[in-house]
């Protein structure tokens, strides 16, 4: 992997954002804001970090990614498509009747999806089980899970966090997409979740705070997570909801709303793509 070539990852992330915007537009519904905020993290994982093989999705010893914030499925679909699991055109059937590309990814329909998610908190809980199984099987594969910040309001998240520390799951890395917004507004107004890093540390985790749009910081944090032994690691990534599209950035209204044709064209242009 060419980690030093940051421009390479920035171009991929821009393309993933373009794919996600187009898919949500064609669907007429979906979640663009949280997909765009997570694009750089997802790019780093799929294109610079994880040991995976699109030609052999069930490869033994592979790393596994679980999208705990399952509503951000468009960005996972985009990453899988651009990584070679299926043609990008297929994901443009997002949310259509009969499409395999549901609003929340289904592990039985889409290659590369390791866990069906949607109910918030269940993704990290499943990831803890996968990491524990990996330990028991002496697998080299690591488990990565991406949570939303509003998702931290779910009690099941903290049950999972307690179990992960208890079983010393150092093969588990959780990443929090901390964009400060959720469907009903700002986290601080709905239910304050900060200080996120201190809460995870209190549960026995190694916690790292980063800029979730800085690839060097993302990769350094992933390296630290791999080097940390005896405890799981959480990477708290400060991000901007709707990142890359000026009228979507830091706007809670774009949590779960599809753009119009005019808005979609503007978004794609801003991201450096063509309609």
Task: Please tell me about this protein's structure.
This is Transketolase. Residues 253-275 are annotated as: Disordered. InterPro entries: THDP-binding, Transketolase_CS, Transketolase_N. The chain has ten helices and seven strands. It is of the alpha/beta class and 275 residues long. It has one domain (6-270): Thiamin diphosphate (ThDP)-binding fold, Pyr/PP domains (Rossmann fold), CATH 3.40.50.970. The strands form two sheets. The chain has a five-stranded parallel sheet with strand order 1-2-3-7-6, sandwiched between helices. The two termini are 30 Å apart. 52% of the residues are buried.
N→C terminal distance = 30 Å
Largest sheet: 5 strands, parallel
The low-confidence runs, each spanning 5 or more residues with pLDDT under 50, are: none
Structural class: alpha/beta
Number of domains: 1
H/E series? HHHEHHEHEEEHHEHEH
Helical fraction: 40-55%
CATH homologous superfamily, by name?
Thiamin diphosphate (ThDP)-binding fold, Pyr/PP domains
* Secondary-structure arrangement, i.e. CATH architecture: 3-Layer(aba) Sandwich
CATH fold descriptor: Rossmann fold
Mean pLDDT, all residues: 97
Protein name: Transketolase
Domain Transketolase N-terminal: 11-272
GO molecular function: metal ion binding; transferase activity
Pfam family, one: Transketolase_N
């Amino acid at each position: 992997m060419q980690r030093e070539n940051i421009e390479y990852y920035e171009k991929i992330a821009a393309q993933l954002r373009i794919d996600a915007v187009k898919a949500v537009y064609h669907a007429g519904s979906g979640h663009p804001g949280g997909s765009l905020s997570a694009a750089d993290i997802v790019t780093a994982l799929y294109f610079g970090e994880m040991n995976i093989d699109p030609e052999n999705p069930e490869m033994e010893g592979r790393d596994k990614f679980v999208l705990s914030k399952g509503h951000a499925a468009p960005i996972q679909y985009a990453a899988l498509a651009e990584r070679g699991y299926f043609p990008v055109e297929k994901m443009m059937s997002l949310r259509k009747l009969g499409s395999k590309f549901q609003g929340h990814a289904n592990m039985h329909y889409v290659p590369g999806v390791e866990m069906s998610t949607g109910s918030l908190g269940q993704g990290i809980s499943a990831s803890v089980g996968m990491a524990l199984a990996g330990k028991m099987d002496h697998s080299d594969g690591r488990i990565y899970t991406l949570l939303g910040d509003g998702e931290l309001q779910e009690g099941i998240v903290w049950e999972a966090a307690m179990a992960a520390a208890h079983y010393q799951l150092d093969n588990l890395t959780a990443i929090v997409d901390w964009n400060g917004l959720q469907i009903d507004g700002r986290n601080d107004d709905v239910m304050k979740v900060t200080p996120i890093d201190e809460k995870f540390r209190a549960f026995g985790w190694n916690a790292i705070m980063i800029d979730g749009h800085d690839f060097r910081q993302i990769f350094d944090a992933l390296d630290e997570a791999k080097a940390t032994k005896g405890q799981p690691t959480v990477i708290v990534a400060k991000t901007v909801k709707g990142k890359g599209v000026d009228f979507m950035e830091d706007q809670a209204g774009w949590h779960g709303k599809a753009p119009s044709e005019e808005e979609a064209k503007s978004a794609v242009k801003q991201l450096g793509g063509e309609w």
